[in-house]
UniProtKB/TrEMBL annotation:
Residues 74-190 form the RGS domain. InterPro entries: RGS (IPR016137), RGS_RGS8 (IPR034949), RGS_sf (IPR036305), RGS_subdom1/3 (IPR024066), RGS_subdomain_2 (IPR044926). PROSITE patterns: RGS. Pfam families: RGS. Keywords: Cell membrane, Cell projection, Membrane, Nucleus, Signal transduction inhibitor. Its main location: membrane. It is a peripheral membrane protein. It comes from the Eukaryota. This is Regulator of G-protein signaling 8. PANTHER family: REGULATOR OF G PROTEIN SIGNALING (PTHR10845), REGULATOR OF G-PROTEIN SIGNALING 8 (PTHR10845:SF147). The lineage of its organism: Eukaryota, Metazoa, Chordata, Craniata, Vertebrata. It is found in: Cell membrane; Cell projection, Dendrite; Nucleus; Perikaryon.
């Protein structure tokens, strides 16, 4: 009798939801493990190395002191280097503001879209995720920029997010970037790369 009850429960919509939730929990466990270092709001280089694009030790060996030092030259230099982006993303996660960088990166990727159909769907996805009021990862932009971007979606083009992207870039450059350069994470990274040379 019990097995027939559990079998019929798994066919019920609530039972299916519970099964899907358990499957999702198992899949999310690996992600939680990888991102666990960020939950402590730490600012150390060890947190940065945990989410480097390559294996941390190999990536740190490839990262020269000169490259890491050049990140302080300008915000655009930092954004042009994959390890710079990874380090800055890790820093922003400690400040709970990584949506700004994720939006900027999504816009950069969006500009490379050639298919008109994909351009339209990607534009709406980016708007709904980052720009719309109460978006899951809403970026901090003013009302006029938000509305101008909304109007641009009526006829999406590779430049429809340029104004919003520019505002977010300026915000990160003036606010988060200077704090990143003063952070323990960046300073530890520089000292680690310098120690490898000596």
């Amino acid at each position: 009798m019990w097995s027939s009850l559990t079998h019929s429960f798994s066919d019920h919509p609530v039972g299916k939801d519970l099964q899907a939730m358990r499957t999702g929990q198992r899949q999310n466990k690996g992600m939680r493990t990888r991102l666990g270092c960020l939950s402590h709001k730490s600012d150390s280089c060890s947190d940065f190395t945990a989410i480097l694009p390559d294996k941390p030790n190999r990536a740190l060996k490839r990262l020269s002191t000169e490259e890491a030092t050049r990140w302080a030259d300008s915000f655009d230099v930092l954004l042009s280097h994959k390890y710079g982006v990874a380090a800055f993303r890790a820093f922003l996660k400690t400040e709970f503001s990584e949506e700004n960088l994720e939006f900027w990166l999504a816009c950069e990727e969006f500009k490379k879209t050639r298919s008109t159909a994909k351009l339209v769907s990607k534009a709406h996805r980016i708007f709904e995720e980052f720009v719309d009021v109460q978006a899951p990862r809403e970026v901090n932009i003013d009302f006029q920029t938000r509305e101008a971007t909304r109007k641009n979606l009526q006829e999406p083009s590779p430049t429809c997010f340029d104004q919003a992207q520019g505002k977010v870039h300026s915000l990160m450059e003036k606010d988060s970037y200077p704090r990143f350069l003063r952070s323990k994470m960046y300073l530890d990274l520089l000292s680690q790369s310098q120690r490898r040379l000596s």
